[in-house]
## 1
Amino acid sequence: MSKHAFLLLSPPETPGKIANPLEYARQLDEADHEVAVYFDGAATYWFDGIDDHPAPAVEAYEQAKERGLIAGVCDHCATFKGVADAVEAAGFEVEGTEHAPDVAALVEDGYELHTV
């Protein structure tokens, strides 16, 4: 099976750009593909008031989280956008201010990158 990494960069004000790739990630996972989802850039704002986002986007996020598809959140972005506490409250660690993910390493590991 193939490997796919979704790099979410869109702000929560465009919930379809969060919900749709999370849905695609779930579908790929159900078909036994390897999937990793990363929240980066403006997408890190997602964690600030998760429950206030539209229900379809929240449901897609919760399903992806339950399936273990969310591989990480950019420490640099979460810290400098002031949402590190919200990210940690959602169960993800923010360690320092390193930018993540390492896209070169993902490609070397055979992941196809999908940037939204």
## 2
Amino acid sequence: MSTASTVPSRAELIDHLVRTRIAGDVATTRDHNLHNYRELAAGNPRYLLGLDVNERWTKEQVLELMATRVGVNPDPGHTTGADTIDVELVVDGLDRMATVLRKAADTRRRVLVATGHPGGLLDVHRALSAALVAAGCPLVSVPEGLWVTDTSDESSGRVQQFCGVAVLERGATLWHTHAPEPMWAILDALPADGWPELVVADHGWAGGAGYRGIDTVGFADSNDPALFLGEAEGTLQVAVPMDDHVADSRHYEPMTAYLLAAAGL
């Protein structure tokens, strides 16, 4: 499967995700995963992604949950080398997300789509934004002149919308950020009755929205445990596991096509 116009079957998508290492044996290393689980449990804001979850989770509990919801190796003695994402859990997550997107389209909910991973997921979010708007969902407009500094991951820049997707931009470059502050800047600049009713995002964009009580669905890698803890606690509706930055972003096109078709968009 190679184009967004071709909708794969579940079996075809599973094969594609494993071949392209979006799932299965992924590039995200075990030591990186465990480091991030420890940092989240220790309360490092960079790894909380805007959510309030650390005090209720030990690093052992984080690993156990990630093994269940993402498919990483459950053995705490496995500390180096490769790690895994269960491809069946990826597609199950896409199906759950599709249900939320379908309900949003049916009820014309106000939506905001955002990414802190523009190098990998911008086209995914762009396609979701366009499909929701085409289905009648009003897209929340990011107010002009928003800047963030001193964020939890030391990123900073202008908050803006690009192709219907909220991003952080600095020096004519779309910025990779885990920080929730860009999302909070948008919400703080909007009247309460203009807030999105659904956010589709990743990283701190998703965590920051969930923390403010907004219905949120998002994508997360095996080294970003906060969103999965948020889903387990009910702060996020859906967190879809996957490698969020494979070498060629076109590899996400069949996944996007599957998700849109499952949502009827």
